[in-house]
Amino acid sequence: MNMKRIAFLALGFMVFGVSVYAQTAAKVYISGSYLDGVTEKACYWVDGKRVDLPEGVRAIGIAVENGKVYAAGYYLASDSNYRYGQACYWIDGEKYDMKYKNIRNPRNYRFEVTGFAATDGKVYVSGYEQDNMSSSSRSNYYYYLWIDGERTSLSDGSESLIKGITIIDGTACFLYSSSYTFYGQSQSLKGVTTGITAAGGKIYVSGTTGISTSNGYLYTACYWVDGTRVDLPQPSKIQDATDTTGIVVANGTVYVSGQYRQRENDRDSTVACYWANSTKIDLPNGASTSGIAVANGNVYVIGYYKQGNIEIACYWENGVRKPLPGGKTVTGIVVR
Known about the structure:
disordered N terminus
């Protein structure tokens, strides 16, 4: 099956996977947010130059197609005297709202975007509403897929978190915490997922899996190919803290971004890294990562570096750190 892979996002623990392109003079597009004084505002960067997204608080994914820049995120909307997060997306900076079900009191709801893709001129966004108005102590979760802003229900009241979306040959593939679904069928994965992509007719998912060792129960980095787990080489000393954040495949090589914690002290800061097949590469002064891309043989990783005890947003190109002035968060990357 010929799979057309589109950019994927996973939010927070998740990461947006990215596309691979064979073009010269590639441009690096990174979604996220910056601080204007103490106010967080949505933006993206092109080769390190910031482009503001009108009204937005944070962009959580980015895609580029036919010269257009697509981003998804949220802004603060108002209802009487209450302000709440409204999910939206932008096309070349023009904002479009996601449609929700009829809501009596938005302050009792939480809205999140968890996945984003753009292909063939269509915008796909996965996300959820958290309804706190239930008579029980538990919140209800309502998961949706929006296509060009129009809402389709994926589940009703479930707690099975949708972590992201990728589009393969026009069909949505949804990533969950320990599985993914494609053509309405589920593939179980024994571990915790962080990213998804497709290449060469196969589906690749990054994540972590737990193993029992003489040092206790440890979580280690891995990825799955069509459901079969491949463990990634670990640091010589680890302490329950090896993680992944995204995955991409280029020219037969599997690249996975992540970080690990050294064993000497549980409170030691993490070390940012990525794996190229079985080789682990540390990123200079890196604290953590949030996504990875490959283009023209070059490897790009977004994340944060350490300046004393402070972590600052940046990206690395072939291990060389590049600045993102004012950056607060970095959430997605695509290289065209």
